[in-house]
Design a protein that fits this description.
This protein is mainly beta and 209 residues long. 12% of the residues lie in helices and 46% in strands. A 13-stranded mixed sheet has the order 2-1-3-4-5-6-7-8-9-10-11-12-13. A hairpin with a 2-residue loop joins strand 4 and strand 5. The longest helix has 9 residues. The N and C termini lie far apart (47 Å).
Length: 209
């Protein structure tokens, strides 16, 4: 399927007339998206590839290297009401090793991430000081937004929680909390937000801490 840069479906004949378009590949006889090629001036400048459980990642890597120097491989898994997306971003002109990240979404809200972690290539462990977590609520128009954003220290403890809920558009009115004052933020929230006190990837891991 061919799409323009605005995500609108177009014909192949119209696509090749454009400087830039996107080519979507789906699994045979299904609507499961496998690959998106980003094409500019008849050459592929980026590929997003969605890896399934049954695929061999090394084979996929070899296949993608033949097509582009810049691509990412995304693999999703589901666990206890959460989706964990592992993303490996390759830029072969810079480095053979990918940038690896894990992003967590709630199964009932796959659009808004609640946790994003950068993974160390050599140890396969998260770089906790690069973790970001978001807690969402809805504004007066019913639009969901990140009301609380959290960052963390190297040991995984909360460094800063920014509460935007009282005035989302005015940075001067945002409240700031740290690990020691987190209980004050919890008192203002209608739900348990203990998950946000540490950089643990999933809530069940946060409970262990």
């Amino acid at each position: 399927m061919y799409k323009n840069i605005f995500g609108e479906v177009i014909s192949k004949s119209n696509a090749v007339k454009l400087n830039e378009y996107h080519l979507y590949y789906y699994e045979k006889d299904s609507d499961v998206l496998k690959e998106i090629e980003f094409i500019n001036d008849d050459s592929i400048y980026n590929i997003n590839y969605f890896l399934s459980e049954s695929e061999n990642e090394e084979e996929v890597l070899t296949y993608l290297k033949e097509k582009s120097d810049f691509f990412d491989i995304e693999k999703k898994e589901s666990t206890d009401g959460f989706i964990i997306s592992t993303n490996k971003l390759y830029s072969l002109s810079v480095d053979d090793q990918p940038l690896i990240s894990k992003t967590v979404f709630k199964t009932d809200d796959p659009e808004n991430f609640i946790c994003s972690q950068v993974i160390d290539n050599e140890t396969n462990e998260p770089q906790l000081e690069k973790t970001i977590k978001c807690w969402y609520t809805t504004d007066e128009n019913g639009e969901k937004y990140a009301a609380i954003e959290c960052s963390y220290q190297e040991d995984g403890k909360l460094e800063l929680a920014i509460n935007k809920a009282s005035d989302p558009d005015n940075e001067q009115n945002w409240a700031h909390y740290d690990y020691e004052t987190f209980h004050e933020l919890q008192e203002q929230c209608p739900t348990d937000i203990s998950y946000y006190k540490t950089a643990a990837l999933l809530p069940k891991e946060a409970l262990k801490n």
